[in-house]
């Protein structure tokens, strides 16, 4: 599958997610301590534990960093790239949450200045616009998806544990199929 294209089916999206094994958030592997595959699984797992009925939030956690795979080295644009890639298949809410996981980091840096970020998140914060201004933070807080985006961000920050076993990618296929079917995206799945 061409990594620059949008997945048209759950099968194609699963191929992308499997391709995250041994793919990293930085091309030189100097970033987070786990690959994109393990990070996706850990983030989605944490969201499943804390929000078991919100399948779209869980799936947003699974796919939120696909932009790093689609265009390596694009820290500032990775969320937008991932959101654009999954919107046709997984719907507007999943795409919105994926897009908001970067502004959520900027918001948390503004309202919780003592919050610890991973060294890589600290570094990319600058490339992603830095700490929100008070006006930006007020506007973000009014977004109807702000709370869910913050929940995703917190799971994103926590989902970087080397060696943590949270299942396998295939465990998520039924949830992806469910979310895709709600948005008409599952109709093309082989």
Radius of gyration: 15 Å
Poorly predicted regions: none
Output the structural class. mainly alpha
Q: Calculate the terminal CA-CA distance, rounded to whole Å.
A: 15 Å
Q: Could you estimate the helical fraction of the residues in percent?
A: 55-70%
Number of helices in the DSSP assignment: 10
Biggest beta sheet summary: none
Number of strands: 0
Mean pLDDT: 92
Could you tell me the strand content as a percent range? under 5%
How do the SSEs run, as a string of H and E?
A: HHHHHHHHHH
Can you walk me through this structure?
The protein is mostly helical and 190 residues long. It contains ten helices and no strands. Helix 2 (36-50) packs antiparallel against helix 3, helix 6 runs antiparallel to helix 8 and helix 6 packs across helix 9 (146-158). It starts with 9 loop residues before the first helix and ends in an 8-residue tail after the last helix. Its cofactor is Fe cation. Pfam families: MIOX. Its main location: cytoplasm. InterPro entries: Inositol_oxygenase (IPR007828), OP_Dioxygenase (IPR052567).
What is this structure's SSE topology?
Layout: H1 10-18, H2 36-50, H3 55-63, H4 66-70, H5 78-90, H6 92-111, H7 119-127, H8 134-142, H9 146-158, H10 173-182
Protein name: Inositol oxygenase family protein
InterPro entries: Inositol_oxygenase, OP_Dioxygenase
Cofactor: Fe cation
